[in-house]
Amino acid sequence: MEKIKMDNPIVEMDGDEMTRVIWRWIKEYLIEPYVDLRTEYYDLGIRNRDLTCDEVTVQAAEATKKYQVAVKCATITPNAARQKEYGLSKLWPSPNATIRAVLDGTVFRQPITVRGISPLVSTWKKPITIARHAYGDIYKSAEDAVPAGAKAELLITLADGTARRIPVHDFKNGGGVVMGMHNTDASIASFARACFEYAVSEKKDLWFAAKDTISKTYDGRFKQIFENIYQQEYKAEFERAGIKYFYTLIDDAVARVMTSEGGFIWAAKNYDGDVFSDMLAAAYGSLAMMTSVLVSPDGAYEYEAAHGTVQSFYYEHLKGKKTATNSTATIFAWAGALRKRAEKDGNSALSAFADELQAATVRTIEQGVMTGDIASISTLENIKTVHAEEFIHEVRARMNV
Ligand code: NAP
Ligand code: MG
Question: What share of the chain is helix, strand, coil (3-state, %, to 5)?
């Protein structure tokens, strides 16, 4: 069989622990036998990030801007324990946060739904896609612990040198903590545009929620920018597509989500998106069934699984044990990147391969062959529970290429 050719490379970002292990298997068993794979490889494994003083992460993000399509393996975001474990010279920042900042992108997370796994919320009939604003707020904040007697103010120096001081708190009765955070009109606007664009292309309603009753200026600005862009640029398109834009308060949104049928896109501020995307993942079955794509306003796409490096399984793996790591979302990340590469290059053979890779994975699970994490929640009868590597072989056996 002749392998499928690629005109342009995909930016490949390798990662850590158990996901680094399945990464290699996916390439070796599911992609390289069929595709003459062209990637520009960046090793974002924690050791190489430490070795390169994290330069490699920035280079990978820059390459994504250049080639427009990337696929990323889960990576360790170091904390004190990780620093000790790997002897790191520094607590390097989250690679995802670095990449998001470079690309000024919006993250869309969507659950992979399969027959036999029903969402925990019985009213949900369709997947809910969550769009997380990927810039600013507490993720790019300055914070400090302050002693008793301190006074905290916001100091804003205007371009003409004049200053505005806004009192935050007088710590006369004991110390505490303070934080200063920001966002920019430009980033909020590109977030809004990414969401409206994606809603039109997916023909799904768009919900946006913030807390503008409490945060009248900060969250109020988000609400206003969304509303202006909707009215000026998307209202007519939404009406033509028969979809709706809907703004509500974040607490109301959460309540409505729980009683909805699903099938819409939920645009969320950075922190809300971080938290509620994990809730949605759990409620749809498993973190291992959640896909994630970072979309930049200039059309670069970075695909990944939403879950982390599955640390506990990695230590089992190192002891020579077979683990139940579910590779579904990582396979979907590769399929998504290959399909987007194909779309940008007009490569129909590659596009068909990406569809089949994804379909074979779903077929495998729907035929009752799956890893333990989803076997325990599947309603199918006669389930064959398999280990991580066996699952990948089972998918390969079902690929019609
Ligand atoms: P995690 O790796 O997602 O794992 C959390 C738990 O979810 C696992 O212990 C496992 O549950 C289950 N799980 C997640 N993925 C699974 C899979 N593919 N197959 C089967 N079960 C799966 O999150 P974490 O333990 O909080 O973080 C571990 C490391 O990943 C950290 O160093 C963190 O910084 C990093 N991380 C990276 C990313 C990213 O790169 N995008 C995202 C999140 C976390 P059970 O143990 O109950 O089986
Ligand atoms: Mg999270």
Answer: 45, 20, 35
In CATH terms, are 1-112+302-401 and 118-141+181-284 the same topology? yes
Q: Is ligand 1 within 6 A of the CB of residue 21? A: no
CA–CA–CA angle 273, 274, 275 (5° rounding) = 95
Give the tens place of pLDDT for each residue, 58-113: 999 999 999 999 999 999 999 999 999 999 999 999 999 999 889 888 889 999 99
Is the shortest distance between the CB of 75 and ligand 1 below 6 Å?
yes
pLDDT one-digit tens code per residue, 344-368: 999 999 999 999 999 999 999 999 9
Shortest-distance Cα residue to atom 32 of ligand 1: 76
Which stretches of 118-268 are assigned E, i.e. beta strand? 129-133, 142-146, 151-157, 163-170, 176-180, 206-210, 245-249, 265-268
Q: Which CATH architecture has domain 1-112+302-401?
A: 3-Layer(aba) Sandwich (3.40)
Question: Quick check: CB of 378 below 6 Å from ligand 1?
Answer: no
Question: Can you tell me whether residue 13 is helix, strand or coil?
Answer: strand
Q: Which class does domain 118-141+181-284 fall in? A: alpha beta
Domain ranges of the chain: 1-112+302-401, 118-141+181-284, 143-180
**CB–CB of 238/244 below 8 Å?**
yes
Measured from the Cα of 76, ligand 1's closest atom is 32
